[in-house]
Design a protein that fits this description.
The complex is a heterodimer of chains A (180) and B (194). Chain A has 180 residues and is mainly alpha-helical. Chain A contains 5 helices and 2 strands, in the order αααββαα. Chain A has a single domain, classed as Fumarate Reductase Cytochrome B subunit (Up-down Bundle), CATH 1.20.950. In chain A, helix 1 runs antiparallel to helix 2, helix 1 crosses helix 4 and helix 2 crosses helix 3. Chain A starts with 10 loop residues before the first helix and ends with a helix. Chain B is of the alpha+beta class and 194 residues long. Chain B contains 2 helices and 11 strands, in the order αββββββαβββββ. In chain B, strands 1-4-5-7-8-9-10-11 form an 8-stranded antiparallel beta barrel. In chain B, 21% of the residues are buried. About 3% of the residues of chain B have low confidence. The chains are: A mainly alpha (180), B alpha+beta (194). At the A-B interface, helix 4 of A face helix 2 of B.
């Protein structure tokens, strides 16, 4: 297998890809879990606190990832992949960058809708960017909720597609996201 | 010519209006939400340790009042549930969700009076149906006349206040603990005679 960046994703992309996948599904699970907690649950206050802190880490990770992608580009699809498949994958990949970006922004806007800042793990606070706006928490909340479900669904299809490449097509698509 | 017609029409209208006012026993008052001289506030205990205060910013209503026969008075108020405001966006969002007010399903809460018993000294017991989240319950509470009369801008106003309590469990809301089972509601209502 060639080590050229043209076919390999590289260590950095691989590391960010898998940590991103792990954190995104963790955040989806935490998000769905925390909104169902009862008022006297031990996690009632800490779960949203952790969700916001990880959201910030995700924002940093996504920023690095987007810069890395723009700087280094993506390797070409493996030779077995058809043109339409490569095009479809490209669209999915753009969506998989875009949705987390909007998810992070909408999550930030829920908590800062009244001008409050967000506390990141008691390390520091991120101030509100937009002025307090009536009903912003509801609009941002709806966007956040439905994009989270969409991202989970699209990521599952993205994973199924990778598994199909591995087990049905028996090509290098999945392998090269595991081995640099 | 035109001014004559306009004048004539205005005069006729004025006579009709005056006649209407003098013969009607009860007069209609519009609750002054436009000028925000009416408030619907609530308070509920947080953990039993302190009071959490909030209000509904948007509501609307009218009352009928015959000052000589206050027991014939009637009031009808509609509250926009999504206007709940506790000075914290995240909490307001939670209060609008299905855990509490479920505002997308039940956008309004209403109160319609059914009976008024005067108690003297400007006080009365008000009976009525309160509907929240589609659940209608008869409630009763004491109301007091605060004052009334001409305002400085040519209008005529009357103001009342009242307090009542609701059990949040009656309206299928999230359990906030035994110390927070009751929410107190305070209303200060000023109406402008129409």
């Amino acid at each position: 297998m060639s080590r050229s960046l043209k076919v390999s994703h590289g260590k950095m992309t691989i590391a960010i890809h898998w940590s991103f996948a792990l954190v995104v599904f963790g955040m989806l699970g935490l998000g769905v879990y925390m909104v169902e907690l009862t008022y006297y649950d031990d996690w009632y206050k800490s779960a949203p606190h952790i969700h916001k802190g990880i959201g910030f880490i995700l924002a940093v990770l996504l920023t690095i990832r987007i810069f890395w992608r723009v700087a280094k580009g993506a390797p070409e699809a493996v030779p077995e992949v058809k043109v339409w498949e490569a095009k479809a994958a490209q669209v999915v990949h753009i969506v998989l960058y875009l949705i987390p970006l909007i998810l992070i922004i909408s999550g930030f806007l829920i908590s800062t809708a009244d001008g409050r800042s967000i506390d990141i793990f008691n390390w520091f606070e991120i101030p509100a960017v937009l002025p307090a706006s009536k009903g912003m928490e509801d609009t941002a909340g709806l966007i956040h909720q439905w994009l989270a479900y969409s991202l989970g669904t699209i990521a599952v299809f993205h994973a199924l597609a990778a598994l199909k490449h591995h087990f049905v097509n028996k090509d290098q698509t999945l392998i090269r996201m595991l081995n640099p | 010519m035109l001014t004559k017609i306009v004048r004539g029409a205005a005069l006729a209208l004025a006579i009709a209006f005056t006649a209407n006012v003098s013969t009607a026993s009860a007069e209609t008052y519009q609750i002054d939400t436009k000028g925000a001289h009416a408030f619907i506030q609530f308070k509920i205990k947080h953990l039993g340790y302190s009071w959490l205060l909030g209000r509904f910013n948007t509501f609307d209503g009218t009352f009928e009042l015959d000052e000589k026969n206050p027991e014939t008075a009637e009031i009808d108020v509609t509250i926009e549930t999504a206007s709940v405001d506790t000075n914290h966006a995240e909490r307001n969002k939670h209060l609008r969700s299905a855990d509490f007010l479920d505002v997308s399903k039940w956008p309004t809460a209403t109160f319609k009076s059914t009976k008024i018993e005067t108690l003297g000294e400007g006080k009365a017991m008000m009976y009525g149906d309160f509907t929240l989240k589609g659940i209608t319950k008869p409630i009763s509470f004491e109301v007091s006349h605060i004052g009334g009369g001409d305002d400085p801008w040519g209008g005529y106003r009357q103001g009342f206040e009242g307090r009542t309590e609701l059990q949040i469990a009656d309206y299928s809301m999230m359990n906030l603990g035994p110390a927070s089972a009751t929410v107190e509601i305070y209303m200060s209502i000023e109406g402008i005679r129409q």
